[in-house]
Write a structure and sequence with these properties.
The chain is α+β, with helices and mostly antiparallel strands and 316 residues long. It contains 7 helices and 14 strands. Keywords: Membrane, Transmembrane, Transmembrane helix.
């Protein structure tokens, strides 16, 4: 006989108690009435209730399931229609670009998913000061952005190979102020562990670590010629269906020309469920157009990666 461990014993115990409870109720229903018709009526009533309550529960559950699947099919059809216009389009590229303007900052989305601004773009990019930082960071030989603490025993993965943009101007949509951002280096005293979190090294000498941060100050002007901006395309009806859309555009601010644009949509097939600490918009990356993955890796600096395909960074 197949044994499933202590969990199986607990389930068997619960089953035995349930049967004892049902038998006890039936015995009581038969014993209490004084007449035989009364006994039959009491037992029939108990049996009817025992059948009705599970039946009602199953009916309600099926009703909820049918409602969910009807909403899901409707949302899928709407999502597939939106995907017809989704994708990345590059109309013109520019060489040797030194600086850019970001015309809208990405703010922290908070913990309530339905108030997040531009959900599609938000989950594929950093927020707040990390957003402009992502455009300034250099890359290593593998093309990875050099973020986080580095140094120590990091080896070649911490060696610069390609620069980021030299500086950028960020426009704050809340007060229309423009702040210039440049790259700065923050140094820590270091530690005896690898910056990637490996096992402690036997050498007790503390190795200095460093990371890139932003240095920001009021922009002296002028605004760089080329800029980027994002726009939330989601309607209230689409939010209710857990569909979100976004436009990200690369612009020539001198000629008002759109150099490139990315139109993207995704939907949460869980329809906003937060069970099991689920985060709906993060889960929605599984159902997106264009795809949120490169091979099997999710995009986390999508705006920087797309911008760099259009505005080629000047080597320096």
């Amino acid at each position: 006989m197949l044994e499933l461990g202590p969990g199986a014993d607990i389930l068997r115990g619960i089953g035995i108690l349930m049967w004892m409870f049902i038998i006890g109720i039936l015995v009581g229903a038969w014993a209490l009435p004084n007449t035989r018709p009364g006994k039959y009526l009491a037992v029939a009533t108990v049996l009817g209730l025992l059948i009705a309550f599970p039946g009602r529960w199953a009916w309600e559950r099926q009703k909820r399931s049918d409602h969910y699947h009807a909403r899901l099919q409707q949302a899928r059809a709407h999502f597939q229609e939106r995907c017809k216009n989704a994708g990345e389009k590059i109309y013109r590229t520019v060489e040797d670009v030194e600086a850019i303007a970001i015309l809208r900052k990405r703010r922290h989305g908070g913990t309530l998913p339905q108030i997040v601004e531009d959900p599609f773009g938000a989950v594929g990019n950093p927020w707040e000061s990390d957003y402009p930082l992502s455009f300034l960071l250099p890359r290593n030989k593998e093309g990875q952005l050099l973020g986080g603490w580095m140094g120590g025993y990091g080896g070649e993965r911490h060696v610069w190979n390609q620069p980021g943009y030299a500086y950028l101007d960020l426009r704050d949509q809340d007060d229309d102020s423009i702040t210039r951002h440049t790259l700065a280096i923050q140094i820590s005293p270091g530690d005896t562990t690898d910056s990637a979190g490996a096992q402690p090294q036997p050498d007790p000498v503390r190795t200095p670590l460093y990371r890139f941060v932003v240095n920001k100050f009021p922009s002296p002007g002028p605004l760089p010629r080329y800029g980027v901006i994002f726009e939330d395309l989601t309607t209230p009806e689409e939010r209710a269906q857990w569909i979100a859309g976004s436009a990200f555009r690369v612009l020539d601010l001198q000629t008002n020309e759109i150099l490139a644009e990315r139109i993207g949509y995704f939907m949460d097939e869980g329809m906003g469920s937060t069970g099991g600490s689920r985060t709906p918009w993060e889960q929605a990356k599984q159902w997106s157009c264009p795809k949120y993955t490169i091979d099997i890796t999710y995009r986390y600096f999508w705006d920087r990666d797309f911008t760099e395909q259009v505005l080629k960074i000047k080597n320096r």
